[in-house]
Here is the input.
Amino acid sequence: MVDLHMHSNFSDGSDSPTQLVEKAKQLGLTAIALTDHDTIDGIPEFLEAGERLGIHTVPGVEISVDTKLPNNGHMHMLGLFIDPKGKKLKETLDYLRTQRNLRAEKIIRKLNELGVNITLEELLEEAGEGSIGRPHVAKILVRKGVVGSIQEAFDIYLAKGKPAYMDKVKLGEEDAIQMIHDAGGFAILAHPHLMNYPTFEEARERIMQLREIGLDGFEIYYSTMPEEYTRGLIELAKAEGFVVSGGSDYHGANKDNIEMGTGLGNLSVPDEIYWNLKEAHQRMRVAP
Ligand code: AMP
Ligand code: FE
Ligand code: FE
Ligand code: ZN
Here is the structure.
């Protein structure tokens, strides 16, 4: 079994990259990918731990894409097998981080206006080396007793439409895909069902549009994916030559119903998914 979608404490997961590899080893996983939101800073530690413990590790990243989707849907693009030394990748992620920090300041200001006592310093400390996100804000609010749970922090203050919500600066589809390609990686649409199209047919059309601008593949294994999607996506991959991937989207204690490897309990990504991706990637690298 493999797990090619997970987060460390460099974004909104709770485990360090080393802990992720240790856990994968305990679970007997063959390969794992680190796909932190908008950052690759955890990758050196991740690869080092993989080397040391004898687990195949895939350097990755997960990018939020700015695009129009129905029913509050969202589009996340995974970069898998990226070269963390890619220059354009670094520059673009630095830009996103700066924008995230500015957004964090605005969220703090809004909360202060609402009478909530929280400072930017506290937030920076909570995020540590990681890229700052709303989950960090939520954690502080829980710790201070302002709300009873992370979910309540979102429901009352931080979710879209709530008083302390701030939009995030995101890359467009083409920029996200190009940045991943520039770093030598595969651009893989994460959890396609979460684009929230009412039918698979509409999702399929959208995926074919993404292919025009370079999409390499998509996830077909994801705990909450409806069967209609899994079936449709497998067929689409076969017909159109997409690469496929999948994983738990493990966040450690920050999403405690999701386990590494098995997700909500129903997930099992076979080893061949990893081997096929690796082989396709090697072929891509030798191609002119
Ligand atoms: P950010 O990147 O700062 O916008 O934070 C995004 C993260 O916040 C997601 O990965 C989720 O973990 C969490 N999140 C977003 N919306 C909600 C929500 N409505 N309820 C709970 N958690 C959420
Ligand atoms: Fe997340
Ligand atoms: Fe995602
Ligand atoms: Zn994710």
